[in-house]
Amino acid sequence: MSDRALKAATRVLAGNWRGTYTVPAAGLYPHQWSWDSAFIAIGLRHISPTRAQQELDAIFSAQWADGRLPQIVFNPRLDVQYSPGASFWQSQRIPGSPAVPTAGLIQPPNHALATLLVHQSDPETSERRRFLSRSYEALLGWHRYLEERRMGDSGLVHIVHPWESGMDNSPFWDAPLAAIDASFGSDIPRPDLKHADASHRPSNAEYGKYLYLAARYRDHDCDDRDESYPFVLEDPAVHALLIRSEWAMAEIAELAGADADGHRRRARALTDALESLWDDELGCYVANDVVAAEHQRFRTVSGLIPLLVPDLPHTDELLRSLSSEHFGLGRIALVPSHDLTAPTFDSARYWRGPSWFNTAWLIAEALSERGFADEARALASQMADLGLDHDFPEYVDPHSGEPRGTQRFSWTAALSLDLYERLHAKGEVL
């Protein structure tokens, strides 16, 4: 990544800044998204640690009374630009919701990792603003919500909507959605199609199920107690990010003078639980449909994200899968979201094949930590080059590297910038 690319990434983040938070992309995503902001903060810390702290402060300020961090914090003035918006969720009518309008769903728990990295970038400013201690209290509530409201006997965190995985139309959700015979109806609002090609986005049929599930969850006051709710899944990436966040919480606890051992014990227990999602034949982790009691046997990037987990028993197998014909590390643009050889692979459509920059960052992090410095460096260079060449796209075609989705995407700029700063300044990727 050249200095020109560094300046370009900085301009994207400046252009998407809204005073206290950063939108993922102007137009298509006009609000604040939860796991986006955590990824964005990781890059912002190199530009302004204070602004990175404010990014996380903004999402923590929208925390619900039960501890959940909402998927979206809405700007109500832009409600018609995104569906479903604040008028759909009407969160102000739900007990325990915050003063600001939000969605009731959640997103993957990458916030503790981002908090730790942001603090480490400028401990002095963090201490002066009491950022770490304030964040730790919010994170305790967030993790407690996941443990108490979103876990069954398996010890695995549950998601109740495809959006909660962050990987909206993954093949993991095909069978669970097909088993639901209800839909939102034929009039599906799609303001997203004003900003992105329909062939790159989830279909109307998928959106009908998405909105049906969201409306049902909303109408039950988002209380996680709808016993006949038809979509409950255990996703390997969501669970792996929770494990990684518990390890980050242990470090935060030590810095904050709190009990770190409890977080370490929790991380190990969560790691043990993850093994029920391992598929030896596929060489990766898979999702589990709790309702149908069936594993969803697809190779996806979600099943590779557990590489981030310390002391994982299947590291070697995951590394082989990553380099195999199924994901093509080093021969393909970044890391495809789905098995390149699968009949369900689609190089253009959202999470059914295209390569994303946030998952590439997670894989680069894992590779670097496991001693694969050259592979991590190559992945970082790809991120930087593709970002600059295509104005920081949302995702890319894994074969051609051509941009897909929207452009000037914040986490693309932020995470490319993060790897550049660490590579350029210290001679290493991470």
Automatic annotation (TrEMBL):
Coiled coil (residue ranges): none
Keyword Hydrolase applies: yes
InterPro entries, per the entry: 6-hairpin_glycosidase_sf, 6hp_glycosidase-like_sf, Glycoside_hydrolase_63, MGH1-like_GH
Mannosylglycerate hydrolase MGH1-like glycoside hydrolase domain sequence ranges: 29-412
A molecular-function term among this protein's GO annotations: hydrolase activity, acting on glycosyl bonds
Top-rank taxon, per record: Bacteria
This protein's UniProt keywords: Glycosidase, Hydrolase
Record carries keyword Aminoacyl-tRNA synthetase: no
Family label: Belongs to the glycosyl hydrolase 63 family.
Name assigned to this protein: Trehalase family glycosidase
Organism encoding this protein: Microbacterium pumilum
